Amino acid sequence: DMIPNECLKMLPPAWEHYLLYLLNKIWCSEDIPSTWAKIKLKLLFKSGNKLDPGNYRGISIFNTVVKILTSILYIRLNTWAENNQVIPEEKMGFRNGRGCTDAIFTLSSVINIQLHHQKRKVWAIFVDLKKAFDSVCHNILWHKLFKLGVSVKYIRFLKQMYEYASVVISENDKLSNEIPVTAGVLQGEILSPLIFNLFISDLIDYFKAQGAQGLNIDNNRDLILQLYADDIVILAYSWADAQSKLKILGKYCELNNLSVNVKKTKIVPFHKGRLKKHKNLTFNNNSIDCEKSFTYLGVPMFSSGKFTRTGDIFLKKGVVANSAVLEILKRCKSDCWVTKVQLFDSMSESVVLYLSEVWGIQCLETIERSQLNFLKTLLHLQKNTPNCYVRLETGRSHCKFQWWNSDIFCKKMYQWWIKLLSMPDDRLPKLCYLKLLGLMQSTSIPFNWAHEMRNILFSLGSSALWEGQNVDMIKKEKLSTFNKLENHLISNDINSVLNSSYNPIYCSISTLQGCESYLKFNCNITKLRLVSQLRMANMKHCNIYFKGKKYQFHYDENCKFCLNNKKDDILHFILECPAYLIYRNKYLKRFINKVPN
């Protein structure tokens, strides 16, 4: 409709009332303008053969006014569905207050709770539904909505909108002919994901009706499968149980006109020790690959149940992101230090710390390398420059603090702990957390998130917070706990510098109190690099990079430019060597005279 969202936001009161009257009239009369259901589709190429339509991702562009209408319909339907618990707890995608963190935490916890038992295994089937959103049969959808208790008027209204729905493909200002939407939910507006959730909400009940049993969380709750959008993870306690559940899934897909992409569906047997040889699992006579790891919702999960190798995967992503940031900085020639670090935070560190509130505690030193690699590359520092020097010079917090601090990165570990404790007792993440609390003394569980959280709090002297498990007190002490952690990490870095022989004079020239002032000067990065290299130079074996050239200093050799038999180190070069007296008097004399002996 070519109406910008900003225009609708700035409507005067009279026009707001007119729009309200129009939408109410359409709702009461159940007469939607046919053009309102027209969708413009932009196709973005992903990879593979460009002639294969399946290798394109569609971006739907809806009329702006229709988005307002569907958002109103969404609020009504979602409120009804949540109040009546129509959508099962196992469904975590497209729901308020739930997200990928809930899904990863629950899955990891359930797996580790099972692996706590001797010789126990968990067969996780990561199911890929083929074009699930585009395959929804409309007749089955209307029947399911009616069966769930959605009002007949609401269903009629949706049905009319879907009957009018059509798509035109836009490419280089050219439009295709209209293509009627005969299957699938509409995309490009907020209501469709909720409709898909309702369409697939009977999956768990279907499994239970077929006699399937889940993995126990406690004495009263088990987990058969977990859903996030169209991603399904089916959990089984044996090979035979996994094969049985695949057959149940096949029946469900047949009844609901859905299909499974067998090539992208994977099975990961989670276990301790060696895994015995087993037959291949099959789906509709097609063999499914058995893997040692799988990336679920962006987080690599390994068959050991631990996240120790997950950090390496995210570090590789961080290397790519760092390169992109450095390339942008090179092209834009930014002279502002704040711009450099903000760009790193938004483009690189946010990638490395994705959902790290769940997995990051097991690989803190690995993910810290991403930040340090970026800073060392940016400032052309030697790779062996101690990390503590780099953090103190640039005023950057240890990733352990950034990963902890929810004010910098949303929903990190402390904030996730608060969210867990604030959940109702029937929520799956809360049930898993309570079970992990009961396994605190166990040494056989591969990864216990609660135990790791306890260790951090105890190391900060905040044991009372852990013992109390009082969410109000935890919220109240959040800032104090953050300050304790940051001060603890900074103190560790300062102590490391004081006890280091790498650069004994650094303590004399550094404030040890945040980012050094020279880095905040708006000047060419080449100058900042030179100063930072000199300040953090190794006193014995120093390399200085300047304008594409490398200058080396060797402490075990004498200076080749003077006859004083002085060691060829960076201090001799700057302060003593007579060969550079002219330059020293010109550039450094007024500074050297101010420095006490």
TrEMBL record:
Using the record's annotation, list all stretches that form the Reverse transcriptase domain.
25-301
> Pfam families attached here?
RVT_1
> Does the record bear Nuclease in its keywords?
yes
Q: Which domain of life is it from?
A: Eukaryota
Q: Which InterPro entries match?
A: DNA/RNA_pol_sf, Rev_trsase/Diguanyl_cyclase, RT_dom
Q: Alphabetically list the UniProt keywords.
A: Endonuclease, Hydrolase, Nuclease, Nucleotidyltransferase, RNA-directed DNA polymerase, Transferase
Transmembrane segments annotated in the record for this chain: none
Gene Ontology MF term list: endonuclease activity; RNA-directed DNA polymerase activity
Q: Which PANTHER family does the UniProt entry name for this protein?
A: REVERSE TRANSCRIPTASE DOMAIN-CONTAINING PROTEIN, THAP-TYPE DOMAIN-CONTAINING PROTEIN
Q: What is this protein called?
A: Putative endonuclease-reverse transcriptase
